[in-house]
Amino acid sequence: MSNRKSHVFHRDLKADYPVAVAGEGAWIIDRDGKRYLDASGGAAVSCLGHCHPRVVAAIREQAGRLEFAHTAFFTHEPAEALADWLTERAAGFSRAYFVSGGSEANEAAIKLARQVHVERGESGRVHAIARHQSYHGNTLGALALGGNPARRALYEPILGLPVSHIEPCYAYRHQRESESLEDYGRRAAQTLEDEILRVGPDRVSAFFAETVVGATAGVVPPAPGYFREIRRICDQYGVIMVLDEVMSGMGRTGTLYACEQDGVWPDMITMAKGLGAGHQPIGAVLVAAPLAETIEAVGVFHHGHTYIGHPMACAAALEVQKVIAEDSLLERVRTAGEAFHERLAARFAQAPHVGDIRGRGYFRGIELVADRETKSPFPRQRGLAARIKTHAMANGLVCYPGNGTADGVDGDHVLLAPPFIATDDELDMIVDRLAAAIDKSLAEIAP
Ligand SMILES: Cc1ncc(COP(=O)(O)O)c(C=O)c1O
């Protein structure tokens, strides 16, 4: 940064962060004029790149018209229009609850599930089931749901939510040689039924899962049929099914909702990141009609924050969604996403430490391993993910590496989530710069 002592409580108080001063399409520019190609939208946020002119104009317009109106007193057009837009595109959903980010969305979903059960006379349903190798946010309830050991560790003693975790659906590591992907998907889903029976079906409130697992396991799509089976099990036992699409939703995988590709609609979808595309902080819980009707019968959802349904955030998100639709960006993500995958696969085909390349659309993960044959991970202490981040940044590339990929402790991956507006040249540049950062990092730890 500079020699001046910062008073910002940064994420890492020892880090020397560059000072970002401008955004321009797929690029972030720092105070020294250095340009960074934003290949991960930070953490899968900036789906329209930076400073998209239409979204900037919509925010300006809304700021001049109505900057805030408290939701205990008013509704307003941006929230109404955005809720219409989102529910019209999700079969069987009738309401959207707007918050300011992904953690808040999952907190609201935990509470809504609880209240729905209580209103229906099933107040014994208090227990949530989620999955290992998942992340649902950093507030205490959302953190308790998550199955990311490193993020939980410090706070474990104060995570009060009754929750248990089943295995993820992670074919690269857990599919047996003798079984098909579909068989594996059924076996992975069966662990939910086993857990519901262990806890007691009348005690289970909700099941939470990321449709495509994001930062914890490095972009892991479900096996075919997995979520259909999960839907069947949730229906059988009256468990509310919540899909966390905070990272994977809003077009990132090539369809507005990632679960569309799995042929399944849950009871709630939580979303954030791509919803406001970084132009405003916004998240939402999309609520299926039967749940909404339960609350409609009593009127009040016992929850709320000052900034829920913020007009400028809703106006920005609505404009983001219109740009995606009018510029046919989902089609672009679907077709160019496949080409991007091919390019990655070709570049890393001979790479001895690239174990798996996976994902959907513009949501891609590369899992790095010590040994491709055995899939053994690099030990956490080698710090491979952190090295890749450092070398990529030095080379003007923002990507999102993570560790604990294999089992919550060891293993590394890189998450890529390019902006939907990236050009073919920029996509090529991402592959080249990433390959250079990976090569350099591996040379340090596995010469
Ligand atoms: C799948 C998922 N859920 C929830 C969250 C939390 O969102 P936020 O950081 O906006 O609170 C994240 C953030 O990375 C996420 O990836």
Topology:
Elements: E1 20-24, E2 27-30, E3 35-38, H1 41-44, H2 53-65, H3 77-88, E4 93-99, H4 102-119, E5 127-131, H5 140-145, H6 149-152, E6 163-166, H7 171-174, H8 181-199, E7 204-210, H9 226-237, E8 240-244, E9 268-271, E10 283-288, H10 289-298, H11 311-326, H12 329-347, E11 354-360, E12 363-368, H13 384-394, E13 397-398, E14 400-403, E15 412-416, H14 424-445
Helix pairs in contact: 2-11, 3-11, 4-10, 8-9, 12-14, 13-14
The chain binds pyridoxal-5'-phosphate (PLP).
Pyridoxal-5'-phosphate (PLP) is lined by residues 43, 101-103, 106, 135-137, 210, 214-215, 244, 246-247, 272.
Characterization of the model:
- The chain has 447 residues and is an alpha/beta fold.
- Strands 4-10-9-8-7-5-6 form a seven-stranded mixed β-sheet, with helices on both faces. It has a four-stranded mixed β-sheet with strand order 1-2-3-13.
- The protein contains 14 helices and 15 strands.
- It has helices at 41-44, 53-65, 77-88, 102-119, 140-145, 149-152, 171-174, 181-199, 226-237, 289-298, 311-326, 329-347, 384-394, 424-445, and strands at 20-24, 27-30, 35-38, 93-99, 127-131, 163-166, 204-210, 240-244, 268-271, 283-288, 354-360, 363-368, 397-398, 400-403, 412-416.
- Helix 9 (226-237) links the parallel strand 7 and strand 8.
- Helix 13 packs across helix 14 (424-445).
- It folds into two domains: 20-52 and 328-445, Aspartate Aminotransferase, domain 1 (Alpha-Beta Complex); 55-326, Aspartate Aminotransferase, domain 2, CATH 3.40.640.10.
- Pyridoxal-5'-phosphate binds at residues 43, 101-103, 106, 135-137, 210, 214-215, 244, 246-247, 272.
